[in-house]
Each structure stands twice: as C-alpha cells, then as structure tokens.
Specification:
The chain is an alpha+beta fold. 29% of the residues lie in helices and 21% in strands. The protein has 2 domains: 5-197, 2-Layer Sandwich (Fructose-1,6-Bisphosphatase, Chain A, domain 1), CATH 3.30.540.10; 208-332, 3-Layer(aba) Sandwich (D-Maltodextrin-Binding Protein, domain 2), CATH 3.40.190.80. It has a 7-stranded mixed β-sheet, with helices on both faces. Strands 11-10-12-14-13 form a 5-stranded mixed β-sheet, with helices on both faces.
Amino acid sequence: MLISTKFMTLERFIRQQEEKFPQATGEFTNVLFALTLAAKLVWREVSKAGLVNILGTTEQINVSGDILKKLDLFADETIRRTMFYTGHLCAMASEESNGLIEMPTKYNSGKYVLIYDPLDGSSNIDANITIGTIFSIFKRVTSFGQGNLDDCLQPGYKQVAAGYIIYGTSTMFVYTTGQGVHGFTLDPSVGEFLLSNENIKIPPKGKFYSINEGNYNLWDPKFQKYINYLKEIDKQSGRPYSLRYIGTMVGDIHRTLLYGGIFMYPADKKNPNGKLRLMYECNPMSYIVEQAGGRAINGEKRILEIQPDSLHQQTPIFIGSTEEVTLCEKFLKEEN
Ligand code: AHM
Ligand code: MG
C-alpha cells in the first residue's frame, strides 16, 4: 500500500518509527509527544514576544495583573511543567537550573532522563533574531525510583534521542532517535509540525565557517592559523570561505546542517574549556550532526565520547561537514 507522506505530521511519523520496534512500550513515544506539545507552547510565546511586553526584567506586571516572565524563564518553566507528568522520566536537568530539577514524587520513576536548554541564543531574544530549544534524552542507568546524577552524566553516544526546535523564519522541530535526522515545519494555521526535511544529510564540504571571530586574539596560534587559512584567496580550493555567525548555536548549526560548513566555539584565554555546555548544547547537536553524516569533536576526540563529570561542564566544539572538521582537526594537531 502506498503511504502518503504529504501530510506527515510529527506525531504520525513518531508513531511509525515506533512501529519498527515491536518490543516498544510506547513510553519513549509519549516523551517525544510531550516534547512536541512543549515546543508548541514555547513557540506560541516566542512568536508574540514582540507584541506583548514580556521581554526585559523577570518581574514585570501585565495589564491583567499577572507577573510576566522573561522568555527564557517562561520556556524553562513550560518545558518543565509539560514534561513533569508524563510518568516516563526519572530525572530532568535544564541549563537554567543549577542541579537536577526536583520532580513530583509520583512521576519521577520513569525510564528516561531529559536534559534541555530551554531557550538557546538568549542574547538574541530582544532583537527578533533566531533562537531555539535543545533537548537530549538518555535511558536511566539506575534501576528504580527517582533518578540521580548518574542517570544524567552519561557520554553523548548513549543518547537515545536528541533534537532542537528552531524559532526562525518558520518554526522547525528537528530530531533524531538514531535513525537519521528528520525535520518538521510548523504550520501555524493548524498547529501541527509537518514533515518537510526527511533524512537530512549534511554536505561533506561547505564554504561557510561560523565563529565569534571577535575572540581572535584570545585563541591558540594553531587555531588562528586555521582561520587565516580559510580567509586566504585560492580559487582552486574554494577560498576564501564566507563567514556566518548568528550567535545562536541552534541557528548556526541548523544552517551548517543544511548548507554545509563548520561551526566552532574553541577554547580561548577567557574560556579555557570553551563556552558551550556539553550536556545541554554540544551532546545533542553532535548526535544530530553525526546522524546526518557529519562530525563533531572537541579537538582531541568525538564530543559524544566525552565522559561528563558535571551537568554544566563546558567543552570546545568543532562541528559540521566531515571534510571541514577534519581539516580543522589537522591544524589543531599541527599536522599542517
Ligand atoms: P545561551 O545558552 O546563554 O544563549 O548561550 C549560548 C550561546 C550559543 O547559542 C551561541 O553559540 C553562543 O552562546 C554565542 O556566544 P558568543 O556571544 O560568545 O559568541
Ligand atoms: Mg544555550
């Protein structure tokens, strides 16, 4: 029978993926369903951010007397509340919280762990520039009851799903469960994410590099040499590359995924361990990029192989098209 994919909703797609695993209990599917709801709730607020006065301080009062929240705190709370009651999670951690999120007792003994960055690119919120939500899901390692830090601090290759929601010219939900990367675009008129980019593959090469080049003087000379190389004029090797930098990791990596190239946040004199967070940002984005056929390293090894020791740990990251990351790696290892 021919199955139509014309109106393949995200929920239908998730369900069809689940059917490939006869042993599936539906718990994982329900976690993903809850995430799609959280995404729509956050999108609703993000899309009216310019209309209602919810930007700025956390404690503004709106016309109806409600206390208004900053958008990133709103997103954090929305995701937390939506995910609390699935009953399928045992632990949650958010970039906005210091330690593990305290979960309601009746609902904290599920099989899965959710780690998320509620609103990435927070410095762009007030300027109507692309922002995003990132999530990462692990299976618990402890056997029962409430989850703990051991359940969270697993290397990225153990993720069972990862994804992001990008609030840009349109809103997209992009995710992987280890069977390729799939993108869904929100049709706001019906409130559904519809399949728009099935099985995304990152081009093996790309002419864009993406980095905060203002930090140039804080970088290691080997890395400076690599960036200088990208800017040299040499028609044959396609140089100079073009620079693109939004300052929202989700947006910069989404572009890299579709057009090819490399996104980097290296270590520097100010941030000796890099700036971006392994658990909330680098692991999920690396899982997605690898699933799309790209690479993600910290300069020495795969991001996904780093054994985390704390929730908020940072790491340098070089991520994108395979050939671009490999070229960067050569400079970092001074093989050039
Ligand atoms: P955030 O989670 O507080 O928004 O910070 C992370 C962001 C990334 O999205 C982005 O890639 C990076 O910080 C930009 O940093 P910089 O302003 O140093 O270039
Ligand atoms: Mg972030």
